[in-house]
């Protein structure tokens, strides 16, 4: 384990992807609310990212029961309104009380052809509406085998963040999500995660200065489970976790949150 991270409050986010209808989401968030104590969430921030159709229901439960979990979305479009059938605009999410929006998840890039340009435009739209983007970057298995991980991370982070003012860069969240680890059961080792997150922080320093790099939170995502949480969160440059499959079950997500708090100090 490396030295304690500097000033950054960890963020654990549950990405429910295209799982849970609104009734299942209500049950899951109620269950999570019953499991989490104030001590569990004292050392970190938590967000859940249900499908769009569930946001209003989950928001109501969070507010009604004062559950200390922030509402998140999985994606949005870069325009505020217009003829974009099927898309959801950032101000619509802001009105619903959404705090965090995942931008450029590899599944959006891979299955819906989201480009680096769209990622850059969307994260700026999210910021314009007072929400925090969680900007995902990560290499494929092939890129990793070819030794191109760092080049890929540099290219994606640069395309997303270039020209963004220092304060806005400092306030956003980046997620290192190696594509070969997402939903596969294969997890990066603590060492791999640290090396990639430290590299991303270096790219942020180049783009926005040392202060922004020190402040920006960088999550790791890819087959996180309660058993590997402590190792990942023990790394100096890993400031939280983006959890997919394991976050669908409130008991498992609560276990990850409980492990992450003390390990992330
Ligand atoms: C994700 O959805 O971003 C993710 C990391 O999924 P999983 O935890 O299932 O690998």
Structural notes for this entry:
The chain has 265 residues and is an alpha/beta fold. It is 47% helix and 14% strand. The chain has one domain (3-263): TIM Barrel, CATH 3.20.20. It is built from 13 helices and 8 strands. The protein has an 8-stranded parallel barrel, surrounded by 6 helices. It starts with 10 loop residues before the first strand and ends with a helix. The model has no long low-confidence stretch (mean pLDDT 96). The structure holds phosphoenolpyruvate. Phosphoenolpyruvate (PEP) binds at residues 15, 17, 177, 182-183, 221-224, 242-246.
Overall mean pLDDT: 96
What binds here, in terms of ligands, is: phosphoenolpyruvate
SSE arrangement, N to C: EHHEHEHEHHEHHHEHHEHEH
- Give the % helix: 40-55%
Shape estimate: globular
Assigned CATH architecture: Alpha-Beta Barrel
- Count every helix, treating DSSP H or I runs of 4 or more residues as helices: 13
Using only CA atoms, what is the Rg? 17 Å
Q: What structural category arises from helix and sheet content?
A: alpha/beta
- Give the tally of structural domains: 1
Q: What is the topology, as strand order, of the major beta sheet?
A: 1-2-3-4-5-6-7-8
């Amino acid at each position: 384990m490396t030295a304690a991270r500097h000033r950054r409050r960890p963020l654990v986010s549950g990405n429910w992807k295209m799982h849970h209808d609104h009734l299942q989401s209500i049950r899951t968030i109620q269950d999570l609310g019953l499991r989490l104590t104030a001590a569990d969430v004292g050392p970190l921030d938590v967000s859940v990212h249900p499908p769009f159709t569930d946001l209003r229901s989950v928001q109501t439960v969070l507010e009604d029961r004062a559950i200390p979990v922030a509402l998140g979305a999985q994606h949005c479009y870069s325009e505020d309104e217009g003829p974009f059938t099927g898309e959801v605009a950032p101000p619509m999410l802001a009105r619903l009380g959404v705090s965090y929006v995942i931008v450029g998840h590899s599944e959006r890039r891979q299955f819906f052809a989201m480009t680096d340009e769209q990622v850059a435009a969307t994260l700026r739209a999210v910021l314009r509406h007072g929400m925090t983007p969680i900007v995902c970057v990560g290499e494929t298995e092939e890129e990793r085998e070819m030794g191109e991980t760092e080049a890929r991370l540099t290219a994606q982070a640069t395309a997303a963040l270039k020209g963004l003012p220092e304060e806005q860069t400092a306030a956003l969240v980046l997620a290192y999500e190696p594509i070969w680890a997402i939903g596969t059961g294969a997890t990066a080792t603590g060492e791999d995660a640290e090396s990639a997150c430290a590299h991303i922080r270096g790219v942020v320093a180049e783009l926005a200065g040392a202060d922004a790099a020190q402040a920006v939170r960088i999550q790791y995502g890819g087959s996180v489970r309660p058993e590997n949480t402590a190792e990942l969160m023990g790394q100096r440059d890993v400031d939280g976790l983006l959890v997919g499959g394991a976050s669908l079950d409130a008991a498992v997500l609560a276990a990850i949150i409980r492990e992450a708090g003390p390990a992330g100090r």
